[in-house]
Amino acid sequence: MNKAVLTQTQPDFVEVDCSPGQEGKRFVLVVDDSKVQRKILTAMLKRWGFQVAEAASGQEAMDFCASNHVDFVLSDWMMPGMNGLEFCQAFRQLDRQGYGYFILLTSKSEKGEIARGLEVGADDFLTKPVNADELRARITAGERILKMEGELQEKNRLVSATLNELTELYDMVDRDLMEAKKLQQSLIRERFKDFGAAQVSLTLRSSGHVGGDLVGFFRVDDHQIGIWGIDVSGHGITSALMTARLAGNLSGRSPEQNVALEADENGGFRLRNPADAADLLNTIVMNEMETEHYFTLLIANVDLRTGKVVMCQAGHPHPVIQRADGSCESVGTGGMPVGLIDAAYYTDFSVTLAPGDRIFIPSDGVMECPDPQESLLDDEGVRDFMVMNADRKGEKLLEAMITHLTEYSGQKDFPDDVSAVLLEFSGEDVHRPEPTG
């Protein structure tokens, strides 16, 4: 409970309890150098149920307001020392909790003077001598404003509290997503692998914390490898969870779970036709995964001895074959995405690489990267990039691709996940058997 003692020009003083909202009453400060005027106004206000304090000067009122809560101020304009206008201006500069409604009491009627009062912060005016009915009406109007201000403050408090809770929740989710991004990136255990006759490089860059793209490779034996790229529909957590599931279906570390492999008669594993692998994945998604997501796929079997690459394209962008002389062509049959319909049908096609040739398998985040005018890079743009960077190898080519996409789009953050597989065939198979005869 705050106690305020206002010293009058005479020895007497007024002591009041000015705790805000006591018994639901508004607090009014009456400021006038006339003791008679103060007593008249105070009597009316108390009769209407207000808490009231008095001050005999502007400076005395300022001292009071600096340490006490005031809802209303009724201040005379003409006072010695700090007048009502100067007091109003100083009152508005106080660091207050809540709004204070300020009514100037004046005999002035000139529009210019009234405008000046409004400019410094007065809310209303009353002409002296004060009429009780008019004062009550002005106070009632002020109460409506204070009530609305109080309701707005409470709503702002609730909004601020909710925002703080949401910020804490967002920070927690953001930390979890950062960890999820690390886990998703860890699905690609190696970004580069030298298989002797061929080298495989991978890149993956999500448009958000986590994404729906994933790329990989696996060794079957000394002369055969598999490479693949997938792009799950949508973005974010659900797409990332699906890629994690699919990574297990194409893992070289668990050949018994890898749909691209099948058991052979010797108790080992051999490559399954890519089209059959795509069909098996489609069956798994349609029958075992309760999801609206589907994905595009490019899966390829690579023979390191002959350079023959057998591929299945299931809705994934066309791979680009770049020959040793730098020339490029897009190949593929298109095909249906995996997990979209039960009756999807998949076919194989093949290419043969000569030493110095390579295959570039991009996701649609590469092909559909837009420039500022919304023109897409597309197949031709990818081929042009490959031609311009024919001398770049492995991971350096993939780094150049990210730089190229950044420059093409004019932004560092791409609208879609970006991933790619690069297979470079050297033909130098260290496991090639020695010729006989």
From TrEMBL:
GO terms for molecular function: phosphatase activity. InterPro entries: Bact_Sigma-Reg, CheY-like_superfamily, PPM-type-like_dom_sf, PPM-type_phosphatase-like_dom, Sig_transdc_resp-reg_receiver. Residues 27-143 form the Response regulatory domain. It holds the Pfam family Response_reg. One of its GO terms (biological process) is phosphorelay signal transduction system. Keywords: Hydrolase, Phosphoprotein. The modification 4-aspartylphosphate is found at residue 76. PANTHER family: STAGE II SPORULATION PROTEIN E (PTHR43156:SF2), STAGE II SPORULATION PROTEIN E-RELATED (PTHR43156). This is SpoIIE family protein phosphatase. It comes from Halocynthiibacter styelae. The lineage of its organism: Bacteria, Pseudomonadati, Pseudomonadota, Alphaproteobacteria, Rhodobacterales.
